[in-house]
Amino acid sequence: MYEIINIFKSLWEKSSNDIIIGLIVTATFSLIIYIVSSIISFGKSKPYLLSSNIRKLLFFILKKKYVIIWNDHNIELSHKIASNLKKRGIKCKFRCIENTIDLKKYPLTPHYIQLILLIDTDVTKLSENESEREHLQLLLLFYVRKGGILLGSHDIIYRRCRHSLLQSAFGCMTNNFERFKKSIDVELVNDFLSHPLLHNLPTKFSLEDGEVCWGEWDKDVKILIQTQKRIKNNRQRQAPILTIRYTGSNGILIWLNSADKQMDLSASLKNLTPEIMQIFENAILQSDNIKKLNNCENRL
Question: Which is it for strands 211-214 and 204-207: parallel, antiparallel or unpaired?
């Protein structure tokens, strides 16, 4: 009789353990389903915020900042620039986006983003929708004023793009241009020969830009590279090719003339000439040295 009782007792204990394990497994499985369904639901309602948070998690795991590249020519150009920069030893995570709206998928703060590169070759607006265009500009400027680096090229501040907030931040609305069939001879400005953004650049060189744009620049904008010759239509003045402006909490705004597109993309960008790539490289690797030059009186 005692043996029978022990048998039933052991069976009961075993079944109790199985029940407990079953309950734990069921509860765990239910929790996983709940979490996954919540993520899916959240992703459908706020896809950009979900993408941004995922990238924050990846940064936490990989400890690498992002470099975001957009251009209005084709995505292959962005990938080509990223590949070239990787070969130059830059360890950031490169993300090439086809649409500027995809900027919302990233946590736009300097803690996560090393550099945003916007290449506007052909009077392309950030968005055709006015309110969306303004919102994207605000996001970019929030990033910069927190200490980020925004490098914009050619038409990003051209009058017809209607990027009024960016034009104000960069310190100019370009509204004039002159086209060139031959290469454009440029030079480093004497006052800034040792500037970190000009690191490893020759004092004088040529760019196959195809076009030079200009406007009236604010006084605190530093012109680092300019045309060697005076431009006839620019009141016989040399035209800026590369400028820099500091803003907010050590933020940096860099404008580069290169990137015009007529029948085809300008050769200086299409071929990723050494000088253009050196500027891109310096904007990333020399960022700390560039920020050290910031002077409080030059901030917006």
Answer: unpaired
Give the count of beta carbons closer than 10 Å to the beta carbon of residue 112: 20
Reference 251, options 140, 155, 157, 89; nearest CA is: 140
Token duo for residue 254: 């860099």
Q: Which pLDDT tens digit goes with each residue over 87-143?
A: 999 999 999 999 999 999 999 999 999 999 999 998 999 999 999 999 999 999 999
For domain 53-298, the CATH superfamily is Class I glutamine amidotransferase (GATase) domain (3.40.50.880)
Q: At 52, is the secondary structure helix, strand, or coil?
A: helix
The domain spans of the chain are 1-45, 53-298
Please give the Cα distance from 172 to 203 (Å, whole number). 25
Dist CA 126 CA 70 (whole Å)? 10
Residue 16 phi/psi, 5-degree rounding, is: -65, -45
- Per-residue pLDDT reduced to its tens digit, 245-297: 998 878 999 999 987 887 788 889 899 999 999 999 999 999 999 988 764 44
Phi then psi for residue 298, to 5 deg, are -95, 0
Cα(37)–Cα(111) distance, rounded to whole angstroms?
30
